[in-house]
Amino acid sequence: MRTYVYSDEKLHGLFAVIVNRLSDDAGHAEMIQSILKDICVHFRFGCGFIYEVNHTGHFDLREYYSSYDNAECLPNSMLLEDHLSGAEIARLKEGRTAIIQLTHDESMETNNLTRLFSANSILLTPVLADGDKLVGLVAMIDRRHQILLDSASIKAAQTVLKLVGNHVRLRSYQMRLEYAHQSLVSVMDHMGIDIYVNDFDTHEILYLNRSMAAPYGGLEKMMGRKCWEVLYDDKTGECDFCPRTKLIDEEGKPTKNIYSWDYRRPFDGSWFRVLCAAFRWVDGRMAQVVSSVDITANKRNEETINRLANYDNLTQLPNRRKLTNVIEDTIRDFYRIDNAEAWIIFFDLDNFKDVNDTYGHQAGDELLEQIGWTLNESPLTKGCGYRFGGDEFAVFKPNVDRIQVNRILDFLLGTFDKQWLLKDDEAVSCQASFGIARFPNDAQSAEILIRQADLAMYKAKEAGKGQAVFTSGEFYQRRS
Question: What is the pTM of this model?
Fold first, then answer.
């Protein structure tokens, strides 16, 4: 057993060396090892080491110095709860230095720590952060013999280890900050939402995640540039739809308002739901955060649902529901326009049942398809033909006069006077009866206007096949 006493001059020199080295290159592993060596040599310990806690709560061996060959006995990683009692860990969290076998103390604490590090003498200083959070251990041990220091040397050794512990604490803060930063970046990059932040006044992009940057060439292509310059090829200044004024109050301070709109990206047709809000950036300047979610699939689903709800699958014509809505919208608009009028031509196939009975239902479907194709392709009826249901159809024409209606009737009557050629080269004859009503003279609502045209059509049927009748009872004679 040896007792050591050190001079103030040598101790001051050690302090100066440690402070200078930590200041010059505080993060260099070899530099830390050299400091551990100097401390151990000064206080005659055979080994010195530093452990730091990781995100799982395990203590990992970061740096060590050893003057003998069995330094590998130090565990590379450990969980303190597996080796020390709760009381021992609590004392460490109080910041108490563990001084083992500097006297003849044979307590359980001595046995646990000496067993853990296979040491005869230990001087260990806990490193705390945020009050009582244990983030590291700085220690000197000796496995060859017991080392006795006088009280002044113990205090000096404690001070030196705490000085190194301050470096460990700073490094722990930096690591946690970097870990938090990387975690935040990872979350932002994988949350399924595109996000960017730009300066409220200059529009300079201050931040964006990778999913936002990818379609535009990556982060390097966008950071620091103006948002409108990057996102739009045809913009030379602030976008006319920029919601900035909607995000601040009368004093120019950010409100809690969130402005939202749907945007279709021009180069690939993708749809996005965009949300925008104003806030203070980290340096105090006003900024706006813009986030967007890809809703292309939703838009396509909406289009599919809309088509199923408003279009006939067989003829590809708009259906009865769509016809009613279009008439209602037209009437609503026409109430604000003087002398506005609209016409509906309602027609029903005269002998469609005979087609089904003679040629089969598949032939009947083919006939309905051809009627739909004809209404969609003719310049006179394109965009205004509807399948009302079964073998009933309609043509609704706003903003036309009687002369134009006559042209449409000539076309329709002439079309049904001819035979229809089906896929199997089967020629089928099928005429139609027509009823014509006009807004506003005959009705001022969609429901009544359709009913009036339907009643006129039945008058045409009663008069024979291939007839067209107005609500006034006038029969239309096709011009050759």
Answer: 0.54
